[in-house]
Design goal:
single chain, 179 residues, mainly alpha, two-stranded antiparallel ribbon, two-stranded antiparallel sheet
Length: 179
């Protein structure tokens, strides 16, 4: 009953009272359920924020200035790989730097997209992959206020949008006003 936005669960207060700054509205069904059971709200608030699972990010790497144990915490994932037992936010507060590395699949999609765009003369080859990517596809050059781009996303004309895919690998239907 607790929504997640871009992979981050709402807080209990956001579910109960909303948040004008992030345009979140209270969740009536959550409020109804939470008030039906005595002391449930106090219990939920007492466990909110606790880590309830562990896993390995497919492409996340933490970098530390100091020794790992000096700056973070250490535990083992179910497969035995050493990982931090802190959340991303706690590691950020401790001064760690998280790097996400694209998978080979992600890099293949970017390369193939660039090949098609150059072949169809939608973009111009700039002499190297890096220069071409930086000129047209780098996040710093995309026009996030472009209604045409968000309409294409909403109408699934953009077939793959990194970290916005649904379980069937099509962009979620959303409007530019939601993002």
């Amino acid at each position: 009953m607790i929504p997640a936005t871009r992979g981050k669960s709402w807080t209990i207060n956001e579910c109960l009272y909303g948040d004008e700054e992030t345009e979140k509205s209270p969740i009536p069904s959550f409020i109804k359920k939470i008030t039906e059971i005595p002391d449930l709200l106090d219990t939920v608030l007492g466990i909110e924020g606790l880590v309830c699972g562990r896993g390995i990010h497919a492409s996340g790497i933490y970098l530390f200035n100091d020794d790992y144990i000096e700056q973070s915490s250490l535990m083992k994932a179910p497969n035995g790989t050493p990982i931090t037992c802190w959340s991303m936010e706690d590691n950020d507060l401790a001064g760690a730097l998280k790097e996400d590395c694209l998978t080979i699949e992600g890099l293949d999609k970017i390369r193939k997209t660039m090949d098609f765009l150059v072949k169809d003369e939608v973009i111009e080859w700039k002499g190297s992959l890096r220069k071409t990517y930086d000129a047209y596809l780098h996040p710093d050059v995309l026009d996030y206020d472009s209604p045409e781009m968000w309409d294409k996303v909403a109408n699934t004309q953009i077939m793959d949008l990194f970290q916005f895919e649904t379980a069937v690998n099509k962009p979620a239907a959303y409007s530019r006003n939601v993002i």
